[in-house]
UniProtKB/TrEMBL annotation:
The chain crosses the membrane at residues 12-36, 42-62, 94-114, 121-141, 161-178, 185-207, 227-254, 275-292, 304-323, 335-357, 369-391, 398-417. Its main location: membrane. GO terms for molecular function: xanthine transmembrane transporter activity. Belongs to the nucleobase:cation symporter-2 (NCS2) (TC 2.A.40) family. InterPro entries: NCS2, UacT-like, Xan_ur_permease. Keywords: Cell membrane, Membrane, Transmembrane, Transmembrane helix, Transport. Pfam families: Xan_ur_permease. It comes from Cytobacillus depressus. This is Purine permease. It is a multi-pass membrane protein. GO terms for cellular component: plasma membrane.
Length: 442
């Protein structure tokens, strides 16, 4: 392989940042307004998100004796956490989000030692059902934003619908006519193009960018001391376990690309680093982090497998996180433009769930019943939460959340119907993960 000079390393690292940037900033852009953050708080949330993405990536890539997979992998916000975080924030406040994130990170670090035993309770019929429920529950968020944001005076206006459709069509066209890297950044380019179109329509203001400072110091617990709620912790732990399984697949795929055979201890160190990254995200009031498959796709595309490139990407992310004007520039994206991008992005979450379910043996009526009941109960709870209105508050907080109720239903029914399959060997589980995993370039 050609020896890379510092300029090439930095350029290739910036390419990794571009590939994951939309996925990184879209999470705070969705979650922040949904839980009532103002423009200044949202800008800080984006900044700290980028900063901790960099920390999490360096922790995974550089690692240490007990932490890190030490492969060229980028860590970013897990998209499956968006719905749960919004639900927690709206019901219990933003501090409950971070309390749940911190505890879930600790649980991930503990479970990393027993991953082979945990995985048997999360076969594709369970993980596919959980991810499908999460994706479907996010679609109303996307549609409300495409209309201009719930409660906005111009909700459903032709201008908002035009911008949403324009952004969505651009994403579709770029994925139809481009391949590789251009396809990987299609969402980012479409958000930029949609914002430019909105500017010429008089719907973009740079006031927040002008008022933002050039540099700031990040601080832990910016939004307050975390609070701990059982239902919130349970919800984020379920998301974390799904992310652990997905990350294991990413590690195995990346190991193949980099011609490195991974052992059980490597997977444990990678998951342990991911758990620590989640804790750091909670402490700095950012987000839970997981391995980004789009960057694995970029490694496969460019054939550049050196860790130095991803280390430079981590440093770039940390620098961007210290520049509030960069974050404020992101907040000018109109809600309708974001909504247009959310539709395919949230739809991809549903697609991921369906892809997981494609590995399920549908000839077994038991599996059909697990999917039917878990998805049905999960969505039913989300659509008609009033059904539990007469229950005590402590119980309602658990059952009114469709993601928690649907996930627990899937896990319990899998134990009831497929208890014989819970004795599957560790090697069979790892082999199945490796064969089922595919890399997304979107």
């Amino acid at each position: 392989m050609e020896k890379l000079n510092p300029v090439k390393v930095g350029t290739l690292g910036f390419q990794h940042v571009l590939a994951m940037y939309a996925g990184a900033v879209i999470v705070p852009l969705i979650v922040g307004p949904a839980i009532g953050l103002n423009a200044q708080q949202l800008a800080y949330l984006i900044s700290i998100d980028l900063f901790t993405c960099g920390i999490a990536t360096l922790l995974q890539v550089v690692g240490g004796k007990h932490f890190g997979i030490k492969l060229p992998v980028i860590l970013g916000c897990t998209f499956t956490a968006v719905g749960p975080m919004i639900a927690i924030g709206q019901l219990q406040g933003i501090t409950a989000i971070y309390g749940a994130i911190i505890v879930s990170g600790i649980i991930v670090m503990i479970l990393s030692q027993f991953m082979s035993k945990i995985m048997r309770f999360f076969p594709p019929v369970v993980t596919g059902s959980v991810v499908t429920i999460i994706g479907v529950s996010l679609i109303p968020v996307a549609m409300n934003n495409a209309a201009g944001g719930l409660g906005s005076p111009d909700f459903g206006s032709p201008q908002n619908l035009f911008l949403a459709c324009f952004t969505l069509i651009l994403i579709i066209l770029m994925n139809r006519f481009f391949k590789g890297y251009m396809r990987a950044i299609s969402v980012l380019l479409s958000l930029v193009a949609g914002t430019i179109a909105a500017y010429f329509m008089g719907m973009v203001s740079f006031t927040d960018v002008a008022n933002a400072s050039w540099f700031h110091i990040v601080q832990p617990f910016y939004f307050g001391i975390p609070t701990f709620n059982v239902s919130a912790i349970l919800m984020m732990t379920l998301v974390a376990i799904v992310s652990m399984i997905e990350s294991t697949g990413v590690f195995l795929a990346l190991g193949d690309i980099c011609d490195r055979k991974l052992e059980s201890k490597d997977i444990k160190k990678g998951l342990r680093a991911e758990g620590l990254a989640v804790i750091i995200g909670g402490i700095f009031n950012a987000f839970p982090y997981t391995s980004f498959s789009q960057n694995v796709g970029l490694v496969a595309l460019t054939k550049v497998k050196t860790r130095n490139v991803v280390i430079s990407a981590g440093v770039i992310l940390m620098i961007l996180g210290l520049l509030p004007k960069v974050a404020a520039l992101t907040t000018i994206i109109p809600t309708a433009v974001l909504g247009g991008a959310m539709i395919p992005m949230f739809g991809m979450v549903i697609s991921s769930g369906v892809r997981m379910l494609s590995a399920v043996d549908f000839s077994k009526n038991e599996n059909l019943l697990i999917i039917a009941c878990s998805v049905g109960i999960g969505l039913g709870s989300a659509v008609v939460p009033a059904i539990f209105g007469s229950l005590p508050t402590s119980i309602r907080l658990l059952v009114e959340n469709g993601i928690v109720l649907g996930s627990v239903t899937a896990i319990l029914l899998n134990v009831v119907f497929n208890y014989k399959d819970l004795n599957i060997s560790k090697n069979d589980q790892v082999n199945q993960l490796n064969s089922d995993h595919s890399i997304d370039l979107i």
